[in-house]
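thread from #wetlab-drylab

HS: before we spend reagent money on co-crystallization trials with fe (ii) ion, can we at least see a predicted complex? here's what I'd submit
DV: go for it
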Amino acid sequence: MAAFELTPELQFGHAEMDATHEDFAVAVNAMCLAADAELAPSLDALIEHCIAHFDQENAWAESIGFPACHRNEHERVLAVMRAVRSELDKGDFGLARRLAAELPVWFRHHAASMDAALAAMLKNGLTMADIDQAPIASPCGGSHACKNHDHDEDGEHCHSHEGDAAHTCDGSGGCHSH
Ligand SMILES: [Fe+2]
Ligand SMILES: [Fe+2]
C-alpha cells in the first residue's frame, strides 16, 4: 500500500494544524506497515495522537463558534478506533488493517470539508458571527446532511445554510426562508 502523504491540497497554511496533520499521517502509516504484533501498539499511538489532535481543533473551533458537526465527526471516528482496538484484543487483525487502509479516505474528506474551513477562519481572524453576516456557504458545507446545526439562544437561527443568510430553522434540518 502506498504511504499516506499530506499532499498540497491537504495543507492549509496553518502551521500548527499542518504539523499535527503530518503527525497523523505518520501514525496512520505506522499502523499500515505494522506487523501483527505491532498493530495494537500502533493503534494505541494513533488513538493517543487523535485525542490531542481533536482536542486542539475542538478548542479552536469552540473559540470561534464553529459548528459542532466538526467535533461530532472527531468523536465518531475516535469511537470507531476504540471499537476496533477492542476487537484487536480478541485477535481480529483484519478489522484493524481495514481501519488503517480507510483512515486516509476519511481524513481527506474530513480535512477538506472541516479542517480547511476552520484553518481559513483562524488564519483570517473570523468567527461564526462574521460568517453569519456574509452571504456564503456555512463551513460545514451548508448541507442538511449535517444534523448538528448550532443555534442562537432563541433557537431560531440556523448557521448551516447556503446562500442568503436570512433563514429560520425548524430544528429538524428543514430550514425555510423568511
Ligand atoms: Fe485535523
Ligand atoms: Fe478536524
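DV: The pocket of fe (ii) ion (ligand 2) is lined by residues 57, 70, 74, 110, 114-115 (CB under 6 Å).
HS: ok that's useful, forwarding to the group
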